[in-house]
Amino acid sequence: MLRIKRNNPATPVLIIAVGLFFLHIVGILRPVENFLSYAIKPLAGRFYSTGSDIKTAYDADSNPEDLNAKVERLIKEVAALTVANSKSLEIEEENRKLREMTKFVDSSRLNVVVARVIAKEAAAEDSLGLVINRGAKDGLISGLAVVSEEGLIVGKVTEVKDTVSKICLTTNPNCQLAAAIQNSDKTQGITNGDLGLTIKMSYIPQLEKITPGDIVITSGLGEHIVRGLVIGKVSQVYNESNEVWQEATIEPLINLNNLTIVSVLIP
Amino acid sequence: MVLLLSGVAIVQSAFIFALPSAFSQINLAVIVLIFTLFFFGFRSALYAALVLGFWLDLYSFYFFGLHLIIFSLTVILVNWILNAWLTNRSLYSFLLLILMATVVYDLTLALSFYFSGASLGTFFLWRGSFWSNLSYQVMWSELAGLLMFNLAGTVTRRFQPFFLEKK
Questions:
Q1: Alpha-carbon distance B12 to B8, whole Å?
Q2: Is A111 helix (H, G, I), strand (E, B) or coil?
Q3: A-chain residues near B68 (CB < 8 A)
Q4: CA-CA distance, B22 to B9, in Å (whole number)?
Q5: Would you call A58 an interface residue with chain B, using a CB distance cutoff of 8 Å?
Q6: How far is B76 from chain A (nearest CA, A)?
Q7: pTM for the whole structure
Q8: Do the beta carbons of residue A261 and residue A112 sit within 8 Å?
Q9: What secondary structure does DSSP assign to A184-223, as a single string?
Q10: SS (H, E, C) A122-155
Q11: Which residues contact A80 (CB under 8 A, 6 or more apart)?
């Protein structure tokens, strides 16, 4: 028979731990958890911003200053121009369709919830998640698109608690998006992250023509994610003649490691 | 004490993880646990594991209790090492305990991710990134341990080394 020693220091801790676990499962602990996570959100957000600022400054110092600043500015300009170009291409395409269709659906009519990144989750190294300060109480549900300040899709909501949510980044292997390439074939496929650095687009039919530099957007086939959000730019194409599908590597247009403010799009 | 530990948990999840990759490997929670075990004993370390685990589980989207279990397990194992293997409470013992705790924490966390399906692809032990992250963690933890031990040495004489002299 299992006997618990009365003087064992682990006993009360074990009892408290089991008690906490039980109260969490039953849901009694939920108001306390919500209160605590709500109460520390501002502090956590400030800590995260400070950490992120240090990271940005450190990254800038690692390289020659002027060159790095210039590259950073150019990346932002390219991202903004790509979004503008992509939007105009989409608008052009939409206009063409509008002439054909009598029913018009305004795809940009979205509710936007601005959120602050408050923590990074201690997670498996290849599936890093960010925690944002908005949750189910703000209308968030799993699967919604998360965009950066520039309007680029950076990930999606994966799990939701009452006051906080977890988002996965597009470079995360667990983060899948239905994607389309803005080429003549309107190629469609699935994207997911590759080693937390780049994005891989797979299930692309062999006969479709893709070239490096093509812009990849969301296809709108995924639940809760509208069409036309820019994912990145094709950097490499892997085309083996004996394979059914071809693959492409996509580079995000912004650095996803320095996100502090994001927007969640509710269709 | 609870407030201090809560602060450590917030700093760990909100601040340290946001730092540049090499610095983001600092495992403040584990260092504080070992410090508590070394300076305040097993019972206090277990309570510290409870508080730190609760706070980290609050912001975690894995099952509730994951950090609580891992921290408690780390404290229990390291306490056993301290009692069974180490004969004194010197700086070397302290640094060895931090090393062991970091390894135990990383291995149990990676194992739980592996078995829960959160980690995809190659088994974590065959990945270079796992070992490089662990190396960074050990390096930072040892440096922090060295600093904390010396700071504690200036505040209290409890862990000053002593020598037996022949008369």
A1: 6
A2: strand
A3: 17, 20-21
A4: 19
A5: yes
A6: 9
A7: 0.71
A8: no
A9: TT--EEEEEEETTTEEEEEEEETTS---TT-EEEE-S-ST
A10: CCCCCCCEEEECCCHHHCCCCCCEEECCCCCEEE
A11: A150
Least confident of A4-18, A159-173, B46-60, B79-93: A4-18
Question: Are the CB atoms for A258 and A56 separated by under 8 Å?
Answer: yes
What are the backbone dihedrals phi and psi of residue A32, each rounded to the nearest 5 degrees, phi first?
-65, -45
Helix boundaries (H) for chain A: 10-26, 30-61, 65-100
> Which among B141, B112, B135 has a CA at the least distance from the CA of B124?
B112
Task: List helix spans (H) across B16-126.
Answer: 28-40, 42-58, 66-84, 91-116
- Residue among B58, B69, B113 minimizing CB distance to A124: B113
The secondary structure of residue B1, as a DSSP letter, is -
Whole-number Å distance between alpha carbons of A146 and A265: 6
Please tell me whether residue A231 adopts helix, strand or coil conformation. strand
Residues 6+ apart with CB under 8 A from A260: A48, A49, A52, A116, A117
Q: Which residues contact A244 (CB under 8 A, 6 or more apart)?
A: A206
Predicted local confidence at residue A102, as pLDDT: 41
The percentage of chain A sitting over the pLDDT mark of 90, rounded to a whole number, equals 3
Half-sphere exposure of A185 (CA within 13 A, CB side): 13
Instruction: Please tell me the distance from the alpha carbon of residue A16 to that of residue A10, in angstroms, as a whole number.
Output: 10
Nearest CA in chain B to A129: B61
Rounded Cα distance between B77 and B37, Å, is: 11
Q: Please answer whether residues A82 and A253 qualify as being in contact, where contact means their C-beta atoms are separated by less than 8 angstroms.
A: yes
CB–CB of A55 and B19 under 8 A?
yes
Q: If you count them, how many residues does chain A have?
A: 267
Phi, psi for A246 (deg, rounded to 5): -110, 165
pLDDT value at B161 more than 80: no
Instruction: Spell out the residues 6+ positions from residue A204 whose beta carbon is closer than 8 angstroms to its own.
Output: A181, A187, A188, A189, A210, A245, A246, A247, A248
- Residue B17 per-residue DSSP state: G
Q: Cβ of A13 and B72 within 8 Å? A: yes
Interchain contact B148–A (C-beta under 8 A): no
